[in-house]
Amino acid sequence: MSDQTRRRKVDHISICLKQDIECKNISTGLEYVHILHNALPEMDLDEVDTTSNIFGYKISFPLIFDSITGGSRESKAINRNIAEVAKEKNLALFLGSIRPAIEDPNSLDSYTIARDVAPETFIGLNIGASQLSRGFDIDKLKSFINNIKANALSIHLNPLQESIQVEGEPLFKSVLEKIHFLVKNLGVPIVVKEVGCGISREVASKLELAGVSAINVAGLGGTNWATVESLRAKMFGNDVKAELGALFSTWGIPTAVSIIECAQTVKVPVIASGGIRSGLDMAKALVLGAKYCSIALPVLRASKSISQLSSLVDKFLMEFKVSMFLAGCRSVEELKSVRYYMDYPLRSWIMR
Ligand SMILES: Cc1cc2nc3c(=O)[nH]c(=O)nc-3n(C[C@H](O)[C@H](O)[C@H](O)COP(=O)(O)O)c2cc1C
Fold first, then answer.
1. Cα separation of 216 and 309, whole Å?
2. What is the average pLDDT across 1-7?
3. Domain 3-349 belongs to what architecture?
4. What is the DSSP letter of 67?
5. Residue among 26, 66, 249 to mutate when testing ligand 1 (max atoms within 8 A of CB)
6. 269 Cβ closer than 6 Å to some ligand 1 atom
7. Do residues 50 and 283 make contact, with C-beta atoms less than 8 angstroms apart?
8. Is it the case that residue 3 has pLDDT exceeding 90?
9. What is the atom index within ligand 1 of the atom nearest the CA of 276?
10. Domain boundaries in the chain?
11. Which CA distances in Å does 122 have to 65, 189, 190, 330?
12. Nearest of 171, 166, 161, 168 to residue 248 by alpha carbon
């Protein structure tokens, strides 16, 4: 891996662990969604079945650990703990961008560790759209998929992050064509995600036509990459990029809006993410039409210890289960047809 990539990955982890980098002045919009209360659930809390299924893998509830890291000693320890908890709690996970391993195959063990500790778990790999745009070696990608026995590949679209990043590569030419090529030739499901700016209905339609298997909205309201890159630019004394990041820190589609846009437009499963911070947020996202939720920052912050990450999952599960109970849902599927109401300003954010 180039020193620059290694340094950047370490900076991202350290900024995300130590600084306040979640959205301010703008939110996911999920706080404006209210699930209709069912005072007569006609079952016991224990009867609520939270299980779900992702590409044939049964999971204990529809939560995914989203892409965070890979490529360094630190990330190997993080990925080991994340995989350990995914196995223990029966959840799915996506590893961080495979780019470091493309640049330095010696760092591959920071990814394969996840498979070593969790042989039966659904594990996805991840790559950036700008790597695809620059051109990539499909055989190399296939060999990573084989090495890790990966169950899917997610591709991140991050034009804002690349525009702010000091050494960013805002190269997004012919990305859709490359996605279509991977759909046809890689042999595993392709998921396309943002990293915190959301996906619109127009983009969702194009992705569905290109054949992707799921869309992960990664909307505005959680980890804010304009802020992360702005803080990093400041560390490098690059005031122009630091200011650009601050200016664009409210750019994007709030998560609730993006879920609605995508779920009402495409038939492929929609993954809700970007600021999902409780099991109640999860239930709201599913009521809006998402099939799964994913989280990154809370996982990173709990990943130092297996017991801390386990407790985080237990908390999300209890909150999700109680939400289902109060909505009168015995199964996750039933959340789809639960009534809800929406407050302003979310109502006015829904674009026609
Ligand atoms: C430290 C860190 C590193 C990340 N690295 C990646 C990555 O390599 N690839 C990717 O697609 N997303 C990456 N993400 C973005 C997350 O997968 C997710 O889309 C985003 O953080 C929004 O979710 P959150 O608000 O729960 O953090 C990263 C997030 C964090 C916090």
1. 22
2. 76
3. Alpha-Beta Barrel (3.20)
4. P
5. 66
6. no
7. no
8. no
9. 26
10. 3-349
11. 11, 12, 14, 25
12. 161
